[in-house]
Amino acid sequence: MHIVADENIPLIEQFFGDFGDITRVAGRTMTQEDVAKADILLVRSVTQVNRELLEGSSVKFVGTATIGTDHIDLECLKEAGIGFASAPGCNAQAVVDYVLSALSVVVDSRGIDFRDLSVGIVGVGNVGLLLRQRLEQMGLTVLACDPFKEEDDVGELTTLDKVLGCDVVSLHTPMEKGGDHPTWHLIGDAQLQQMMTDACLINACRGAVVDNDALLKHLHDNPDFVAVLDVWEGEPELNRELLDFCALATPHIAGYSLDGKMRGTELVYQGACEFFGLPERLKLGQFLPEPGIRRVDFSAEVPVHQALRTAIRASYEIRVDDGVMRSVIRHSQNLRESFDRMRKDYPLRRDTINLKVGVPARAHDLQDALEAAGFDVRSR
Ligand SMILES: NC(=O)C1=CN([C@@H]2O[C@H](COP(=O)(O)OP(=O)(O)OC[C@H]3O[C@@H](n4cnc5c(N)ncnc54)[C@H](O)[C@@H]3O)[C@@H](O)[C@H]2O)C=CC1
Ligand SMILES: O=C(O)C(=O)[C@H](O)COP(=O)(O)O
């Protein structure tokens, strides 16, 4: 078989080497010609997989090493009898780490405790549910809405209107233009007006879930409003003025932990094995390297809130990514190229669970709080 894969998906040679020969291509500019002779096509979020791309090709299976599938014309694949797999939940942990790091900056800037915050979650799927569990265990007030979920499965649900009343609103829906509950411009002028003037909006799902023009206007009119954007309407293009108004800005890297990326490859490998009736011979565990920073230790005297902030940022520091983004975009002559370059060259980052946190055996509150935030807590 012939496999055509995006050049930025890790471990393709390791997982797909036994399937056949592999050609790597640039995902953003993938053409009909690139995929013409492929049996298996492996993509990321930057490749639009549609009728036009697949026309006349021999593709039998498409895998996307992503959670989101809005770049894939699923109807077209179904009609053509092409097998498909995505990677549900692969980088959910990384997105939750991203939101926790953003929240740590918000609480610092306000001089408050995490537990003083109410957080509204829009979309309680793999990311939203994990976030909810983490935040509730950490003692924050959480409201959530999701028209497709049952309370028995994801906990108490409320309306979007109520969620918009929280101190922080975090978006975790797919990008969907059609259906009964579309998410395209789910947050527009009317919804922003419903939020508190000093509320914080976090978007780490898809850019167009927020009307970016409306958000920019809102930020102009409400200087205390806080926007944290990982995803941008029309990316890799983005509005430089909007970036300047954001409290934290990153280039669609919320899910970019090494663990999340590699898990994405493993999941599409599993999907391909199932589709072609082949045995699964490989497991991700054999490829994941040891984490760099392995352990931080706290004394019993460290206040819980401070230990949480320190551990969260030792694991993932959103302000570093924000600083890189501002500097790169400020000097960029070519926004598209710069945006994709930051993503391609993204430094190695690990999921929170890889960070061991040492805590004295008698410091039970500290242990509980750090475990709630997702750390591997070792009592000593
Ligand atoms: N910035 C990044 O690096 C990443 C972004 N993403 C994006 O985040 C999205 C969410 O990820 P997951 O939680 O894993 O997806 P998921 O599919 O597990 O959950 C999405 C949830 O949103 C709900 N939903 C759909 N329409 C809604 C609406 N109108 N209002 C409220 N809820 C609605 C669904 O019922 C579902 O429970 C993905 O679709 C993807 O686009 C995912 C991973 C990384
Ligand atoms: O999984 C998703 O959905 C995402 O948004 C990915 O983190 C995006 O990564 P790329 O596919 O663009 O590398």
From TrEMBL:
Keywords: Cytoplasm, NAD, Oxidoreductase, Pyridoxine biosynthesis. InterPro entries: D-isomer_DH_CS1, D-isomer_DH_NAD-bd, Erythronate-4-P_DHase, Erythronate-4-P_DHase_dimer, NAD(P)-bd_dom_sf, PdxB_dimer_sf. Its EC number is 1.1.1.290. GO terms for cellular component: cytosol. Pathway: Cofactor biosynthesis; pyridoxine 5'-phosphate biosynthesis; pyridoxine 5'-phosphate from D-erythrose 4-phosphate: step 2/5. NAD(+) binds at D146, T173, D230, G255. It catalyses: 4-phospho-D-erythronate + NAD(+) = (R)-3-hydroxy-2-oxo-4-phosphooxybutanoate + NADH + H(+). Gene3D superfamilies: 3.30.1370.170, NAD(P)-binding Rossmann-like Domain. Residues 110-254 form the D-isomer specific 2-hydroxyacid dehydrogenase NAD-binding domain. PANTHER family: FORMATE DEHYDROGENASE 1. NCBIfam families: PRK00257.1 (NF001309). This is Erythronate-4-phosphate dehydrogenase. It comes from Thalassolituus maritimus. The gene is pdxB.
